[in-house]
Amino acid sequence: MKEVIFKNEIARLRKPVLEDAEALMELTHDQDVMRYYGMEPFRSVEESQNEIKWFLGLFDKNCGRWVIADTNTNVYIGDIGFFNYQEEHRRVEIGFKLSKQYWKRNIMSDCMRTVLEAGFTTFGYNRIEAFVEKNNVPCKKLLSKMNFSGEGLLREYVYEFNNFVDLEIYSLLKREYITLAGPAT
User: Fold this and answer.
1) Is the pTM of this model over 0.70?
2) Which is it for strands 11-14 and 4-7: parallel, antiparallel or unpaired?
3) Tally: H helices and E strands in the chain
4) What is the DSSP letter of 137?
5) CB count, 10 Å around CB of 179?
6) First and final CA of the chain: distance in angstroms?
7) Burial level of 151, CB count in 10 A (0-12/13-18/19+)?
8) Span 4-181: which CATH code?
9) pLDDT tens digits for 61-93?
10) Angle at 156 (CA atoms; ends 154, 160), nearest 5 degrees
């Protein structure tokens, strides 16, 4: 897979490098970005480097987690990608986060279109799922914009920060993506 799979005047999507760890660690300390993410902030660059290594390891498991980098500086500003691939079902989860200074600039929409195309065409997925906390309205709006369908509420599905949390499940199927994307050229 190419190192850079998408680029516009604001952001590029590229493979992660260990040098992204410090910016990733900083992002995990932004409460607005991480409000619905369900994980504690990284306490050290080493923890963040382990996350980058996990991102890279996903590429060996028919998945991938790309870094969203500022086009001008190539500095990490977020990430997006696939994990929890179920080969027998050709099903995978998608996850993403973005620095709030880049919110409302269509960056995540552009990156998601690119990643969805890779998922259905390069990786051969049939179903891409997203699990979203029910109060995460911006995420649900993005998924709706990308034509994901809401499938229902998973009550007290995860245990985070000493509480059980409800999640909503969304999905996009390959046949729906093909219909929406039009014929391949």
Assistant:
1) yes
2) antiparallel
3) 6, 8
4) H
5) 11
6) 20
7) exposed
8) 3.40.630.30
9) 999 999 999 999 999 999 999 999 999 999 999
10) 120
